[in-house]
Amino acid sequence: MAASTASRLWLPRPTASSHCPRSPPRLSRFSPLRAAKLESVLSIGTHVIPHPRKVETGGEDAFFVGDDGGGVFAIADGVSGWAEKNVNPALFSRELMANSSTFLKDEEVSHDPQILLMKAHAATSSTGSATAIIAMLEKTGTLKIASVGDCGLKVIRKGQVMFSTCPQEHYFDCPYQLSSEAIGQTYKDALVCTVNLMEGDIIVSGSDGFFDNIFDQQILAVISESPGIDEAAKALAELARKHSVDGFDVPWWKKLLGAKLTGGKMDDITVIVAQVKTVVIPDDEGAIVERENGGEKVTVAATASAEQKG
After folding, report:
1. Rounded distance between C-alpha atoms, residue 117 and residue 148, angstroms
2. I want to staple 203 with a disulfide (CB 3.0 to 4.6 A). Which of 71, 163, 166, 274 is the partner?
3. Cα–Cα distance measured from residue 213 to residue 147, given in angstroms and rounded to the nearest whole number
4. Three-class SS of residue 113?
5. Do residues 148 and 193 make contact, with C-beta atoms less than 8 angstroms apart?
């Protein structure tokens, strides 16, 4: 999968004349757009930086991005300890994400990330284990999250972190994980939560290689300085990568679990940045909106369109 991908949704708008202020749309009494609705969607950017020693193989993180509902994304981090048993840790995480994408529109899943984890895990035949997080946005603006382990997610609103998931660990450096072995966790052990989002909210999600090497204030600073979600995802990943090499004061909760006070943690780094946008969905595609341009009416077709950038 490409290191960076994005999806943007836009609504064509008429251009008002330069000498007249733009007025809000006025619906015709007979316009079918009177029944139009607003839906929330995600515009998503991603960036991956493999561990320096795993560049040739692409690292052990895996992810997918989809457009089901208002948008969905997921990250899985293969547990590197399997390499000591001559097992490629990337195989499990990649198959888990491939299965998650396959079952996304399954009737039983019904836009439930925890059930999606269940079905994807059950269908994964590779030996290994992985931490994982799945986030799904409903068109109403509700974000549903299911997470097993220490992949993380934060919601930023108006320049402040207003929600964060909590990592799940048995003890330091031993996170909860979905596994091919019976001793591992299952979807029943997932941290499950919902967050009501607003237009303009920013979601930052990543593997532990990202969150172990960056502070919230640094995330906020990068988001505020970035011109778009693609640039933000890349800048955040590169900053975490720099900290992993140069040294970094680890997050406080890692210290409580016994982590050393300073020193970066070199690892695969996966970052997903998503922004909530609102689009107008007419009941009748091509319905008419009337907009006044001075004394003249300008009539345009109101349609929703999506641009996918690979």
Report:
1. 9
2. 274
3. 20
4. helix
5. no
* φ/ψ (deg, to 5) at 183: -75, -10
Residue 238: its H or E element = helix 229-246
For the record, the structure tokens of 117 come out as 């984890």
Q: What pLDDT does 172 receive?
A: 83
Contact 66, 97 (CB under 8 A): no
**The token pair that represents 260 in the structure block:** 């050393």
pTM over 0.70: yes
pLDDT of residue 88: 96
Residues lower than pLDDT 70 in the chain: 1-35, 247-263, 283-310
Return d(Cα 270, Cα 110) in angstroms, integer.
Answer: 27
Q: How many CB atoms lie within 10 A of CB 50?
A: 21
CB burial class (10 A; 0-12, 13-18, 19+) of residue 161?
A: middle
The DSSP annotation for 2-69 comes to -S--EEEEE---PPPPTTSPPPPPB--TT-GGGG-EEEEEEEEEEEEE--GGGTTTT-SEEEEEE-ST
- What is the reported pLDDT for 22? 54
Strands 72-78 and 174-175: unpaired
Strands 61-66 and 202-206 turn out to be unpaired
Is 120 in a helix, a strand, or coil?
helix
Kindly report the three-state secondary structure assignment for every residue of 212-224.
Answer: CCCCHHHHHHHHH
The residues that bridge with 271 in the sheet, in sequence order, are 47, 206
Q: How far is CA 19 from the centre of its chain?
A: 42
Q: What is the per-residue burial (b if ≥16 Cβ within 10 Å, else e) of 202-226? A: bbbbbbbbbbbbbeeeebbebbeeb
Structure tokens at 209: 């290689």
Residue type, 154: K
Asked if residues 155 and 143 have their Cβ atoms less than 8 Å apart, the reply is yes
pLDDT single digits (tens) 176-226: 999 999 989 999 999 999 999 999 999 999 999 999 999 999 999 999 999
Residue 93 CB coordination number (10 Å) = 30
